[in-house]
Structure formats: structure tokens, C-alpha cells
């Protein structure tokens, strides 16, 4: 079964700092990859996704992620974070050629941006 | 609001009681998913429907759990004889058949005393 690892559990940054959150998955076949964000008191929202094509995908609010197949990674980046980016970030994978539709999530990274 | 809705948003119950949660997906979405999320963890898959057919169930879904989607629209998740370990956020998501992006509802937070 596939698994997702998010190695950074809690990240604290100052405003304007650059962000990179790690995500590694353990499935060797075709995957769809997602980053979801959960702002305080709100529900999970899609930040960006990768299905195929250009491995560098851009999402909302200036976020981007790069799919590196050889490293089984899908790291999330933002050049300059804002206080409003304080949230919990979840990486998720869907193993396409298993026929399953379930998403497997990582345990999440809590990002705290200090003003 | 045309997003996924869930009811109730919060539920407190005593151990041994039965509870039922409802999910209304985005109207044109024929796929519906249930997940469970505990503190400090990401969501864990429970079950998935395509229209009214329940096509996939996780091993997490013990025989005390049952889910239905009788007319292919809303879905219910019932937990019988609740246990303290059932305390969690229960999330519903929906998607179209042609596009795999799942959109999540606000969740139902269950506390079993």
C-alpha cells in the first residue's frame, strides 16, 4: 500500500521568508499528487495538483510544487510567505493504476508565520 | 454555497450510542468519499461511492460502521455502539467521474464520552 511522508511536522517562519515543505510517497506506479491546505477554523481546500505533463505546477496564492519522479517527491514551495499562510498543509497521493480512488494523506505540516 | 455540506458539524454522544452523519456532495459530482481525521494526523480513507454503489471500503471501516448513498445523491455514515476511539473528525468529499480532484466538506466532529 502506498504511504506519504511529510518530514516537517511544525515549521515556524518570519514573513517574507521562503518556504519549502517536503513530501515523499512510496508508490512506484502512476500517481496523481495533491497539496491541500487547512486554514484555522476552515475545511480542507485544494492548493494545487499534479496529474501529468509539466512537473512544475502552480497553485493558488503563489504556491508551486515540483514532481520529481526519480525521488518520489512532490515538495511545496513559496518564495515569500505571508502571515495569512499560517495553516496546516497536507500532501496526498492517488495511485492511479491500482484502480483505487482513495487519497492517501501525509500527517501534515503545521506552518506558523510570524509577522 | 454550492460546496460539500455536512450535518451536524458537532456531535457529542455517550459510549454505546448510535450516531448518524449526513453529507451532501456538490450537485454534479457522482463520486462521494468518507474520511476520518484524528488530531495530528492527515485524513484516512473510509469508503467511496460512485453514484449509489459502494465500490471501496477501508479496513478501518469496522462492522460497526455503515455508509449508504441510496439515491446517488446525499450519503449517510452510521456508527453503531460508539467507542471512545471513534472520536474524530469525519470528512466527506466529492468529485466527478472524469476528474479526480476531491473537494472536502467542513466535517463532523464527533466526541464520544
Radius of gyration of chain A (CA) equals 14 Å
Oligomer: heterodimer
State mean pLDDT of chain B (0 to 100 scale).
93
Question: What proportion strand of chain B?
Answer: over 45%
- Summing up helix and strand content along with how strands pair, one would put the structural category of chain A as mainly beta
- Count the helices of chain B. How many? 0
Rg over CA atoms of chain B: 13 Å
Care to count the β-strands of chain B? 11
Q: Major sheet of chain B, described briefly? A: 7 strands, mixed
Tell me the overall shape of chain A.
globular
Strand content of chain A: over 45%
How helical, in percent, are the residues of chain A?
Answer: under 10%
DSSP summary, beta strand count of chain A: 12
- Envelope shape of chain B: globular
Q: State the end-to-end CA separation of chain A.
A: 41 Å
Proportion of helical residues of chain B: under 10%
Structural class of chain B: mainly beta
SSE sequence of chain A, one letter per element: EEEEEEEEEEEE
Return residue spans of chain B where pLDDT drops below 50 for at least 5 consecutive residues: none
Write the layout of secondary structure elements.
The complex is a heterodimer of chains A (115) and B (113).
Chain A: E1 4-5, E2 10-14, E3 19-21, E4 24-25, E5 31-38, E6 45-50, E7 56-58, E8 64-68, E9 73-78, E10 87-95, E11 104-105, E12 109-114
Parallel strand pairs in A: 2-12
Antiparallel strand pairs in A: 1-4, 3-9, 5-6, 5-10, 7-8, 8-9, 10-11, 10-12
Chain B: E1 5-7, E2 10-13, E3 19-24, E4 31-37, E5 44-50, E6 53-57, E7 65-68, E8 75-79, E9 88-95, E10 103-104, E11 108-112
Parallel strand pairs in B: 2-11
Antiparallel strand pairs in B: 1-3, 3-8, 4-5, 4-9, 5-6, 7-8, 9-10, 9-11
